[in-house]
Amino acid sequence: MTTTSQPPAAVTTLLDQARRDYAALTSQGLALDLTRGKPSLVQLDMAAELLQLPADRYRAADGTDCRNYGPPSKGLRELREIFAPVLQVPVEQLVAVGNSSLELMHDCLVHMLLSVVPGAERRWADQDVAFLAPVPGYDRHFALCERFGIEMIPVPMTADGPDMDVVEDLVRSNPKVKGIWCVPKYSNPDGACYSDETARRLATMETAAPDFRIFWDNAYPVHHLTDEEVEVADILTGCAEAGHPDRAFVFGSTSKITMAGAGVAFFGSSPANVDWWISKAGIRSIGPDKVNQLRHALFLGDTDGLRAHMRRHREILRPKFDTVLRIFARELEGSGLATWSDPKGGYFIALSVKKGCARDVVRLAKEAGIAVTPAGATYPYRSDPEDSVIRIGPTYPSLEELEQIAQGLTVCVRLAGYEKLAAEQN
Ligand code: PMP
Question: What start and end residues bound the annotated signal peptide (predicted)?
Fold first, then answer.
């Protein structure tokens, strides 16, 4: 295999080869899409029974007629019981509501901007507010901050979660830092899992802002890709034991369990935060879609049923991740042009190409008919200072398409990388 410490003549040869491979790639007339992490059709079909449920049932376990307005305002208990252990939230403190966890994060921000959250002296709209944004991270978290004029301060991710020395420093010294985005398990996009020590430090750290919040977006709690089913520490208990019971907001949803955008979302937190949330949410909506919650509870059955369902997802997803990883290794290992994550779960692979090349790789791929998430999307303000990270979402395309996509991408990585190397050598 090749290395980047090539003499100029070798780089010219490699560049010529990459140019020929790219010409062959563009001549294929591909039209492939890798832009978002969506469940595949096979995964969606696994939840097809949902479309027949709740059949002629409309009563919840407590006798509630799900067809009508009315309590329970926290959502159906039987569904919350299924998800409480998975999201590590006591069932009394877990709310099932809406179809989108992103929507709940949006609403939490709005409610904190417009009304005083437990622990706060004033509402956030009357102050400068900044959030810590571990990078690379989830573009839609960053879009929420941008939407509301919340400044984002990037914090580098490590294999154990955000760099906690940086986090502790920033939250201790700056009262306008009022929150942090966290995807604690199988993080989007690099697959990192927060270590117990990271969770402990997040729960115990001193913050200058009394109303500091951890947005614990547990989007992938049961989305394992290996036998090692990673467990992450229970953040609510950690915060409560550290004397900061109101610090964490926990979010989750069934978007990547049943049907994306047609599932159920969850919010969990301290009793005070849940009361606060319900007092605001109760004005926005008369109540959740209990029929959808009932069909989800009937379909999943219990927490074991949920875990068994996700093992069937894994059977579909594992070969897709393996295909991409195998082709990356075959085409790029040892080239010095790229590194990539090998996640134990979740929906993404983070591909890090040679500094200054990510935008070129994405452009080349697009011109060859492969749509990839824009370079920079995983950074606040779409600005990756190294222009290096590309998010790969292998879940939706078929295995045959993934072969073409991964192979095509590696050609783009080689072309952009060797062009850069050649330019540097001149
Ligand atoms: N958080 C993360 C980390 C995600 O990756 C996603 C979906 N891609 C979401 C939230 C959005 O989930 P929902 O459909 O529940 O809004």
Answer: none
Q: Check whether residue 320 and residue 295 sit in a common domain.
A: no
Residue 267 CA, ligand 1 centroid: distance in Å: 13
**Residue 1: predicted pLDDT:** 37
- Domain end: 301, 319, 340, which one? 301
Output DSSP code: residue 224: B
What are the φ and ψ backbone dihedral angles of 50, each rounded to 5 degrees?
Answer: -55, -35
Atom index in ligand 1 nearest the CA of residue 187 equals 3
Shared-domain flag, residues 195 and 284: yes
Residue 355 confidence (pLDDT): 97
- Ligand 1 test: best mutation among 105, 223, 255, 347, most atoms within 8 Å of CB? 255
pTM of the model: 0.97
Closest to 22 in 3D by CA, of 358, 409, 420: 409
**Judgement on whether residues 236 and 346 belong to the same structural domain of the protein:** no
How confident is the model at residue 9, as a pLDDT? 81
Is 55 among the domain residues?
Answer: no
Q: Which residues of the chain have pLDDT under 50?
A: 1-3
Q: Is 257 in the pocket of ligand 1 (CB under 6 A)?
A: no
